[in-house]
Design a protein that fits this description.
By secondary structure, this protein is an alpha/beta fold. It is 60% helix and 11% strand. The site of cobalamin has 38 residues, from helix 3, helix 4, helix 5, strand 3 and strand 4.
Length: 220
């Protein structure tokens, strides 16, 4: 089976919400030498993009989306260790606290960002989903992190990102941290408008922004 066919099968497994096929094809991808990062970005994420598109056109409904998410997670569980091994950066570049912000349970994108940061040498403290803003700050203080990264796919949870920045100021620790935001409804313009330091349209951009922002801070 060709590598292109494997990537297509990964996308299809997410579209069809077939967790077994997603896991099986992920194993096949690794056996065949498909780059795990490529399997995620050009296989799984393509599938999820199609599901999102169909969901907004009411071609599929919430149960199908839930099954797609299960398939995606089953595949990520197999691909992530291989991706981290491939990244293999042993020198820690910086510390990040990450979480999906309060009110939101979407965590696939956040998990991918966390994985890519780890694969690029960051120490990542992932607080999961529906994370209150004070929990993000407390963890950053406790772990002496450099970056606080918040994700949301819900427009109704975006205001909590503004709360995060406000609470950092209120506590007098805003300057201690690089704050990055991202996820579906979040835009570069909005991120700048609320006073966040960084934004990323996807996982690769998130890593680049984290690296660049940290470099600037360390050069000060
Ligand atoms: C899968 C999914 C679900 C799954 C989530 C499973 C899970 N464990 O995550 C389930 C079925 C549970 C779900 C539930 C709901 N969902 Co939903 N869901 C989706 C769907 C189809 C795909 C999201 C996804 O995983 N994308 C794939 C990942 C890889 O992409 P991503 O998240 O965008 O992440 C990338 C970038 O954004 C970026 N990034 C992400 N985070 C961060 C953070 C930082 C710091 C940076 C720099 C970058 C970054 O990098 C990531 C990797 O490349 C979207 C549709 C869509 N077009 O997005 C709807 C969508 C997000 N859901 C939506 C809604 C409304 C809901 C529900 C409220 C539905 C309901 N009525 O119950 C509930 C949410 C309840 C809650 N309290 O949270 C809406 C949100 C609308 C809005 N703007 O507010 C969407 C857009 C669908 C739609 N068109 O209406 N959903």
């Amino acid at each position: 089976m060709s590598k292109v066919q494997i990537l297509d099968d990964l996308a299809d497994s997410v579209i069809n919400g077939d967790a077994e096929k997603a896991a099986g094809t992920s194993r096949k991808a690794l056996r065949t030498g498909v780059d795990p990062f490529k399997a995620i970005s050009e296989g799984l994420m393509k599938g999820m993009a199609k599901v999102g598109e169909d969901f907004s056109k009411l071609k599929v409904y919430l149960p199908e989306v839930m099954m797609a998410a299960e398939a995606m997670n089953a595949a990520l569980a197999i691909l992530e260790p291989a991706a981290l091994k491939k990244g293999g950066k042993s020198v820690k570049k910086g510390k990040v606290v990450i979480g999906t912000i309060y009110g939101d349970i979407h965590d696939i994108g956040k998990n991918i960002v966390a994985m890519l940061l780890r694969a690029n040498g960051f120490e990542v403290h992932d607080l999961g989903r529906e994370v209150p803003v004070d929990a993000l700050i407390n963890k950053a203080e406790e772990t002496k992190s450099d970056i606080i990264a918040a994700s949301t796919l819900l427009s109704t949870s975006m205001p909590y990102m503004e709360d995060l920045l406000a609470l950092l100021k209120e506590k007098g620790v805003r300057k201690k941290y690089i704050v990055m935001v991202g996820g579906g409804p979040v835009t570069r313009e909005w991120a700048a408008q609320i006073g966040a330091d960084g934004y990323g349209d996807d996982g690769d951009e998130a890593v680049k922004a984290a690296q660049e922002l940290l470099r600037k801070v360390k050069a000060r």
